[in-house]
């Protein structure tokens, strides 16, 4: 049986970390529900973190809308919400330290140059410069170059090695902190023991594992859920205008999400909390389909 085995004495802490770029849709419900059921079925905590570090992509009111939707679906979180926009000092201090230790460097290569001269994978040339740039994007020196990890349900996952070895960006040239850095610092800060999220983030998981090594932080475990796709290779997303899920009658989407995750049926109930409680009691991590994506009807 697959269970949470690596830290048997450590209480389980899971999380859901939406970006406030739109309302929750069926795809994000899968990530919220999957991470919630996993955490609660193990008697663990479930935290919610709002990943609001990319103002140009943010939609006004989306963070509150997401939180009200989680409540309407009976997904109650523990502790206080964490907003990444309140953590920028920690991100900057970490970047300053990495720069001072030559574990990160400024890069001024335009994306076009990386596409044309380096086939899209950055070759680290700004790290060799003398003197070095003192502004631009900040890249991590990716010594660890993690290309594989073991997923709780999917087993060994490998990503392309050139991609895995790339010195990737941890702060953008426009001054915004990169998702990879923020998510690692916050998951470590919140003591997350297992990250449950969509299969589209397996490459991100490798990059994040590299960062855990460079920063000397203890990495969590990983459980990637299948993605809901309308056509092969196209996940439901805010970018392709996936429909917001119904907050007034959550029952139908909840049944569909449980079925998507391979979970046993629950009884329909006007009180959605009862449905969630039953889903927690019946949750079977081994029943989650071991697939990167699943096609759903529109
Ligand atoms: N904020 C990311 C998103 O909404 C998810 C990050 C994660 O779960 O690590 O796509």
Residue-averaged pLDDT: 95
What is the total tally of β strands? 13
**CATH superfamily membership, which one?**
HUPs
Order of helices and strands: EHEHEHEHHEEEHEHEHEEEHHE
Q: What is the CATH topology descriptor?
A: Rossmann fold
Query: Count of helical segments?
Result: 10
Which ligands occur here? glutamic acid
CATH architecture: 3-Layer(aba) Sandwich
Q: Compute the gyration radius: what is it?
A: 20 Å
Report, as a whole number of angstroms, the end-to-end distance.
Answer: 34 Å
- Coarse shape: elongated
Total domain modules: 1
What is the CATH top level name? Alpha Beta
Strand order of the largest sheet: 1-2-3
Secondary structure layout:
Blueprint: E1 13-16, H1 26-41, E2 45-50, H2 62-72, E3 82-83, H3 88-100, E4 104-107, H4 111-118, H5 125-128, E5 137-140, E6 148-151, E7 155-158, H6 161-165, E8 169-171, H7 179-189, E9 194-198, H8 202-215, E10 221-225, E11 227-231, E12 234-235, H9 251-260, H10 272-282, E13 293-295
Parallel strand pairs: 1-2, 2-3, 9-10, 11-13
Antiparallel strand pairs: 4-5, 5-8, 6-7, 11-12
Helix pairs in contact: 1-9, 1-10, 7-8
The chain binds glutamic acid (GLU).
Overview of the structural elements:
This protein has about 300 residues and is of the alpha/beta class. The chain has one domain: Rossmann fold (3-Layer(aba) Sandwich), CATH 3.40.50. Helices cover about 35% and strands about 15% of the residues. The strands form 5 sheets. It has a 3-stranded parallel sheet, with helices on one face. Helix 1 packs across helix 10. The longest helix is centred in the N-terminal third of the chain and has 16 residues, at about 25-40. The model has no long low-confidence stretch (mean pLDDT about 95).
């Amino acid at each position: 049986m697959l269970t949470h085995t690596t830290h048997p004495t450590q209480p389980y802490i899971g999380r859901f970390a939406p970006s406030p770029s739109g309302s929750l849709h069926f795809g994000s419900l899968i990530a919220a529900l999957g991470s919630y059921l996993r955490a609660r079925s193990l008697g663990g905590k479930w935290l919610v973190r709002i990943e609001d570090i990319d103002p140009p992509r943010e939609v006004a009111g989306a963070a509150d809308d997401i939180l009200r939707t989680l409540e309407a679906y009976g997904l109650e979180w523990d502790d206080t919400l964490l907003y990444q926009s309140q953590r920028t000092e920690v991100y900057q201090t970490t970047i300053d330290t990495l720069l001072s230790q030559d574990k990160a460097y400024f890069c001024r290569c335009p994306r076009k140059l990386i596409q044309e001269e380096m086939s899209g994978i950055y070759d680290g040339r700004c790290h060799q410069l003398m003197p070095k740039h003192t502004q631009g994007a900040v890249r991590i020196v990716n010594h660890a170059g993690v290309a594989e990890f073991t997923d709780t349900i999917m087993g060994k996952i490998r990503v392309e090695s050139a991609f895995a070895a790339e010195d990737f960006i941890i702060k953008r040239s426009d001054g915004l902190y990169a998702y990879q850095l923020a998510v690692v610092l916050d998951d470590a800060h919140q003591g997350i023991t297992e990250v449950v999220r969509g299969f589209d983030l397996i490459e991100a998981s490798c990059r994040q594992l590299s960062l855990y090594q460079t920063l000397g932080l203890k990495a969590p475990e990983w459980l990637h859920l299948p993605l809901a796709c309308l056509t092969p290779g196209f996940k439901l997303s805010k970018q392709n205008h996936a429909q917001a899920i119904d907050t007034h009658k959550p029952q139908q989407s909840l049944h569909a999400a449980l079925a998507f995750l391979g979970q046993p049926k629950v009884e329909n109930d006007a009180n959605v909390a009862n449905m969630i409680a039953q889903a927690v009691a019946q949750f079977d991590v081994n029943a989650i389909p071991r697939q990167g994506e699943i096609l759903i009807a529109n």
